[in-house]
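Researcher: Here's the sequence for the chain we discussed earlier.
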Amino acid sequence: MNTTSNSELEDFERSKVPESFEISSPSNNSLLPFTNASLTRREDRSVEIDWAKLDSASSTASSEKVLTEMEKSVRRNTMRFPKSARAHANLGVALLKSGQTKEAFEELTTALEIDPENYLASLTLARLHLAEGRIKDAEDVYRKLLQFRPQDAAAEVGLSSVLIRTKRHDEAYLHLSNAVRIDKHDSFARFLLGLVCLQKADLRCALNEFRAASNLDLRNPDIYHAIGVAYTLQGEHLRAEKAFKTALALAPDSSVTVINLARTLLEFKKADQAINILQGYLDTHPDDLGVRDQLGFAYLQAQRYSAARFQLLHILEMGQEKLSPTEIGRHRTNIAVTYMHERAFKKAEGELKSAIEVSPNASHIPYDNLARVYAFTDRMQTAISVLLAAVQHFPNNREIRSLLSIFYADQEYFWEAIRELEYLKAKGMLSDENYACLGDDYLEVGEAQKALEVLMEGYSKFPKSMAIINNLAYCLLGDGKTSQAREVLESRPPKEEKSVEMTATLGLLHLSEGDYDGARRLYKQAENMAKKSSRKELARRARQKMHLELARYHVERGEYDMGLREIRAGLQEKLERRSFVKGLEALAASIKA
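Model: Thanks. This is the structure I predict for it:
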């Protein structure tokens, strides 16, 4: 049966931040470019890496005086030795560190005019080019330096940084491998190799390189953090947890490590541990919105909805001038989810409308949840209207069209439900549940052959799907193919718990095989299962379906009195399914004829 149950409606969707991870460069060598990266896992589980723009210079307030004195000293040297490449290179480095990039560029260029092979000037100028986005110029300097120093690991690493940013990962891998061969103790080269392996989706390679880097630099938190990210991407959350905890012990003020450790703990439903870590960090860093956001998610998982809502409202208050419309919409959506769990549907409706208003094209989730709110409050037509509006913004979104098809089927608009699912089918986007529903919808409109074709196709793609197995078996039983139906039912995974629908279908199998008592027992079992789960409407439909199948069984055997008794019982159900009623009425008409 294709129905909208309470359990389906309660599948509230939280609006999530894209699964991303920040990795910082562990290099302490000022001559090498920092290589910070942001990793995002796509829906297909592949990894996209965004390489951060480099800072051209870095200095703290406490170091400004030292830098000024250094600049004065090396400037005097250039005046004393105007033809010294070394003096100009040293001045270029000092100017770069103090943020005077234009002057640094001039001094470094002068140094290389005097001595084209000057090592310090070459590395520093290449780093400056890369930091200011002159990728081709940086590459030229590194390649020229390698001509003079073909066995220089730093030049190999620098060139690899250029190649990484221009997505020439295979070539970068070769140069980094050269760097490791030249200097086996270069932890930074190992680290970069790990990043390249991540980009190539070779997680085993990435872990090997990150672990090798950690062995060379035992107390570097950035490397342990990277190991945690790689383990997370590989799905080894226990090892990820250990790595993130090590990184956090070495760098307790790292917000990205706190967030990723909390995510890992939440994967294992360790919400209380995640909450303690996140709250502990916020006690000393109360303005960190990212950590507060993660704390809200942790409270949601712990079903502490008012606490989650407090954090999310606090974010909106603190971030009035910082948050984008997309972020505001996401937080409003999640506040609504807390209200939905508390059955405060009016408040949830207001938050979801605000989320859609502030950012109508950011996400399908507020539309989805708003439709669920309307369905829960018996406004199904309004729910359908919301989803139709969502389709205009997200025409190829599977979740929206799937829910729309379910709502259409609930209202017995089966052809409309079929239209939505056929659209997804044409796009190659059907899930196993979609195939099961589409087959059921075709059965409801009397297209049994089409239903069988759809379900057979779904079964070939998802042979272990309980929903498809159930509906395909039911379709085969309706077509009189009892032995095939049994074969399909026996293919279900042995450890999967039987659903209400599956129990009812097993009842029909027994009925088709002549086991009347066994069939009635299974039908009653399905009804009781539905009652215990508080799915009253499903219990009624299961009962009405039982009466229909038993009536058909008696009529086919000429047992008209018993058939009429089942027909009357089926028609007396308070919640009627039009297709069931038509079947019962047709049987009654055949008896009178």
